[in-house]
Design goal:
GO molecular function, one term: hydrolase activity
Strand content: 15-25%
Number of helices: 8
Shape: globular
CATH superfamily: Alpha/Beta hydrolase fold, catalytic domain
Distance between the termini: 30 Å
CATH architecture: 3-Layer(aba) Sandwich
Pfam family, one: Esterase
Keywords: Hydrolase, Signal
Strand order of the largest sheet: 1-2-3-5-4-6-7-8-9
Protein name: S-formylglutathione hydrolase FrmB
InterPro entries: AB_hydrolase_fold, Esterase-like, Mycobacterial_A85_antigen
Low-confidence stretches: 1-8, 11-19
CATH topology: Rossmann fold
Number of strands: 9
Radius of gyration: 18 Å
Number of domains: 1
Order of helices and strands: EEEEHHEHEHEHHEHEH
Length: 284
């Protein structure tokens, strides 16, 4: 069996924190390129031998690994969540508008393989994690919400819980309440990554969109939380996911509240997701 080779380079820590947040680069053999990520450790991590659960916290379509540290409207929110819940929080970086899947058309878009087969094993090998399904959760905003729901549905052996904040639950841009130029730009990008032969509509959703995995979500039995602002341009995709999960009897927590596709909304959403995950993450 071939051993997975990952190159780990520590970078300067994010400017606001010198002790809790480490930024680093990981070489991805599947894409033959280096990707940045950050990891947030509880303040007492270095003074303990305890192993901790892990949350993978994903960014949006035009974002970066540092977004959750630099764009939230409450200073050091991720640090506070790591300390309060004694959880390691990993914020990976991926390519723009790549949706956290493996493209069947482009070798440079293999972010599913990167997250699942390269980054998760790397984190478990280099940090004191509880390296098991029962101690691992995943969530994210917008495109990251799509990635969290899609990856948790495809790999239930890795996650106990998953969430989405303002997520792209259906990547069919015809469901998005956006200007035509933005819609066409995103649709063209999807066409390049996936091709034109894929179906985005019920009941035969393609396997590259989150709503196409509702059957597996029921079978997997993961704890799910999905929330979206009522003024968000993706609200219809979230309502579609909610309706599909209700139709097939999949337990999940669904939240609609005032708000749009903004960092104010996601800053308020993260503590809600952390409280939800805390009920399911095993700490031994």
């Amino acid at each position: 069996m071939k051993k997975l080779l990952l190159i780990f380079l520590l970078l300067p820590t994010l400017a606001f924190s010198q002790t809790q947040v480490e930024t680093f680069e990981v070489y991805s053999p599947s894409m033959k390129k280096t990707l940045k990520a950050a990891i947030t450790l509880p303040e007492n991590y270095s003074n303990s031998d305890s192993r901790l659960p892990v949350l993978y916290l994903l960014h949006g379509g035009s974002g970066a690994y540092s977004d959750w540290h630099e764009k939230v409207t409450e200073e050091k929110l991720v640090n506070k969540m790591a300390d309060q819940y004694q959880v390691i929080i990993v914020t990976p970086g991926v390519g723009p508008a790549s949706y956290y899947y493996d493209s069947p058309k482009m070798d440079s878009v293999k972010y599913e393989t990167y997250l699942i087969k390269e980054l998760v094993p790397f984190i478990d090998s280099n940090y004191r994690t509880l390296a098991k399904k029962e101690s691992r959760a995943i969530t994210g905003l917008s495109m990251g919400g799509h990635g969290a729901i899609l990856l948790s549905a495809k790999y239930p052996e890795l996650f106990i819980a998953a969430g989405s904040m303002s997520g792209v639950m259906n990547i069919d841009t015809r469901m998005w309440k956006v200007p035509d130029d933005f819609r066409n730009l995103r649709a063209e990008g999807q066409k390049q990554m996936l091709g034109q032969e894929l179906n985005y509509e019920a009941p035969n959703f393609n396997p590259y969109t989150a709503v196409g995995w509702v059957k597996q979500m029921k079978e997997n039995g993961l704890a799910l939380i999905i929330d979206c602002g009522v003024d968000d341009f993706l609200i219809d995709t979230n309502r579609q996911m909610h309706a599909l999960l209700l139709e097939n009897g999949t337990p999940h927590e669904y939240i609609e509240r005032p708000g749009a596709h903004t960092w104010k909304y996601w800053t308020e959403a993260l503590p809600v997701h952390m409280l939800f995950f805390d009920k399911y993450l095993i700490r031994k």
